[in-house]
Amino acid sequence: MAAFLKSLILMIALVIAVHLLAYYLIQHSVLDRPLIWVVNHIGSTPVLAVFGCVLFLALFFWTSKNMISYLKEIRSGLQQLASGKLDYVIPLRSADELGDIALSINVLSKQFNELLEEERNAEKTKNDLITGVSHDLRTPLTSILGFLELIEKDRYQDEVELRYFVSIAYEKSLRLKRLIDDLFEYTKLNNGMPLVLAEIDVVDLLGQLAEEFVPSLEKVDMLCQIHSTESTLMIMADGDLLVRAYDNLISNALQYGQAGKLVDIHIEKIKTEAVIRIVNYGEPIPAQDVPYIFDRFYRVDRARTADFGGTGLGLAITKSIIEAQGGRISVSSTAKETIFETRYSLLQHKA
């Protein structure tokens, strides 16, 4: 439109100038006879009309050549994108409609590239999950089948050895069930399991949960202490899932913090958040493992087999539960202590 208007204005100005020039030449030039003949036999209006059309086309081509060149550049960019080069960016050379088109194409290309990358990551995640599940299910299942085969073929010396084989197969079966249960729960959480939200007092909830761990603590000669700066801290959460998350964190502290003989639970209010820190004083988590501690099937001690470690899903489930309820979880570990910190927005009650 800008090129059209510019060409039209220039054409009108030039036609008027040519008309005035012809009038001047008729009055004062030796060329008056040819001009008078053209005016008398053809007419000034048709001549000016033809001249104006030709002039307009020439001017429009001249003023729009940059636009045509930019259109070719945009077309070339679209061909690059169509060939699979989704990171190609069309240069923005103007602020008009063509510039807007180029910008829109670039934005669309970026969004499509991001979606494609997310799809690739999702596919890789699915494959990794299948690989991890296959490995962790196969290990106990192989042991179960091995001991059942010994029993089936009567390859045991006496009833004592038979009971020993049965006991091991039973323990492996329980581990297999725990792994399947954890995997099922992890899948449900990551597929958007509906939450049953209610007002929860985290001070009271963690106090009750710590009491339930007393027998387990006494077995390993450990102590759990709660330190709270507040008597009540209310958050909106799913109580059952919250219990599962902190059950995992405290169990983790018991399993890997026995050397420290103590688990501390610190609860405090920081601005508008409830902050809970679960601290154990056992062996530190190696610095290279900290970024991956919440990844599914990740075990810090690679030398430890699945028989002695967890399923590798406990902390992944905990992270999913915390984040599904709008919370955040992080971990830090030094030679002195390992801290799992969770944060939630506090309920703001109107006066």
Walk me through this protein's architecture:
With 351 residues, this protein is an alpha+beta fold. The chain has three domains: 2-85, no CATH class; 124-190, Signal transduction histidine kinase, dimerisation/phosphotransfer (DHp) domain (Helix Hairpins), CATH 1.10.287.130; 198-345, Histidine kinase-like ATPase, C-terminal domain (Heat Shock Protein 90), CATH 3.30.565.10. The chain has helices at residues 2-28, 32-41, 44-82, 97-152, 159-190, 202-212, 214-219, 239-256, 314-324; strands at 198-201, 223-228, 234-237, 262-270, 273-280, 328-333, 338-345. The strands form two sheets. Strands 2-4-5-7-6 form a five-stranded mixed beta sheet. A two-stranded antiparallel ribbon has the order 1-3. A hairpin with a 2-residue loop joins strand 4 and strand 5. Helix 3 packs parallel to helix 4 (97-152) and helix 5 (159-190) packs parallel to helix 9 (314-324). The longest helix is centred in the middle third of the chain and has 56 residues, at 97-152. The chain is elongated and about 135 Å long. The two termini are 61 Å apart.
Topology:
Layout: H1 2-28, H2 32-41, H3 44-82, H4 97-152, H5 159-190, E1 198-201, H6 202-212, H7 214-219, E2 223-228, E3 234-237, H8 239-256, E4 262-270, E5 273-280, H9 314-324, E6 328-333, E7 338-345
Parallel strand pairs: 2-4
Antiparallel strand pairs: 1-3, 4-5, 5-7, 6-7
Helix pairs in contact: 1-2, 1-3, 3-4, 4-5, 5-9, 6-8, 8-9
